[in-house]
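Issue 218. Parser rejects a valid record. Input:
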Amino acid sequence: MPVSKRVSFLMTRSSWIRRMFEEGEKLRADGKGAVYDFSIGNPMLEPPGIFSQTLKDLAAGPPPGLHRYMPNVGYASTRKAVAEYVTGEYKVPVTADHVIMTVGAAGGCNVALKALLDPGEEVILLLPFFCEYEFYIDNHGGVMVLVPTRKDFELDLDAIERAITPKTRVIIVNTPNNPSGVVYSYESLNRLADILRRKSAQRGSPIYLLSDEAYRKIIYDLDHCPSVLEAYDNSIMVTSHSKDLGLPGERVGWLVINPKLDDGAAIYNAMAFLNRTLGYINCPSIMQKAIEPCLRASIDINWYRRKRDLLVKNLKSFGYDVVNPGGSFYMFPSAPGGDDLGFCRAMMKWRVLVVPGNGFGTPGHFRLSFCVPDEVCEGALPAFEAAMKEYRQHGKFRD
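Output the parser choked on:
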């Protein structure tokens, strides 16, 4: 076999998101009508004006050496700008020497996990979870441990505490969450921090909290997204500008270590080394310079809010159980009868694409990505209503 057994196995668990997106490509190719595709979180909004103008200025008058090699951790000026932003936003005294520019949030997660994990050590994931995390953990020899959340997708702190073992090294938190849209509260993060401090003290070594906050600016009901940096010293935050600036194709992100991180200098140096040796090399140079004046900018959140409100209101009126998403551009309703696979197959006959909860470790739900035009949301509503009526009438979905 030309492909390793391990990779062959992981490929069988590959993303349901991509599978459904590819089904959509087939439907679009048949020419039989509109396709209402909620499968993939691919932001549609163009970047804010300040980014576009900065990029034009850089292209017209690039600073000397813009396209040369740079330090593994990124440009000093960009890291300084990020540090000042984080310090102001989270009231945590971050400097440029706590920041590493990364190839998106995915690059940041991999760099952090590689630096922290020895083979066989455990990483706790909270259900539902972004499917790629499983592969990031496997990349670096870790063991995935799945822990449920509550019915409203908030942290089940008792379940997390029970799951911690002597091998627990990292807990990954994703807030605002993909796929549920839940924003973990200050109270939940602070209580989680209390548990981790106590458990770390009992065993004499830290448990690290790695937080993916790529949707941190896409929040609807709060003025500020709570962060692990504010709650827990042994924390690392990763993020990207794929969502808040509408730059998913540019792969520009960063990670920040808490200034009080145990052995922070050693961990930072390890991640700087790995930013190169894992093959990411650097976050693209022109993108680093382009985001420096844009860190407080954002796309229009109301564009997403309008779609969230439309879908939640209508899905609830049709009889779906929906937790109102406080952030991101996803929601994770319950599938009628708990049959997420059957529901997603049935929706395709109405040319609607959603992703089964199986793909996020939580069967019985489906994910809707509402970073789509208004006409997609509005056009799909009759199909959601028809699917619920069909299930109630027949107790199953018909092919």
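Fixed in the parser; the record now loads. The mean pLDDT is 94.
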